[in-house]
Amino acid sequence: MPVEVARHVTVGDLVEDSAYGAGMRHRTLRLLVLTAAAVVIGVAAAQAVRSPEPSPLADSPPATAVSPSYRPPSTAPAPTAPAPTATASPTRASRLPMGGRRIFPEHFLVAYYGTAGTGSLGVLGEDTPERIAQVLRRTAAPYAVSGRRVQIVYELIVTVADGHPGPDGDYSHHIAREQVRRYVEAARRNRALLVLDIQPGRTDFLTAATRWEWALREPWVGLALDPEWRMPPGEMPGRTIGQVDAAEINRVSAWLADLVADRRLPQKVFVVHQFQPGMVRRIGAVRARPQLAMVQHVDGFGARADKLATYRRVVRPDRFEIGFKLFLDEDIDMFHPAEVLRLRPPVSFVSYQ
Question: Quick one: how far is CA 51 from the chain centroid?
Answer without folding.
Answer: 30
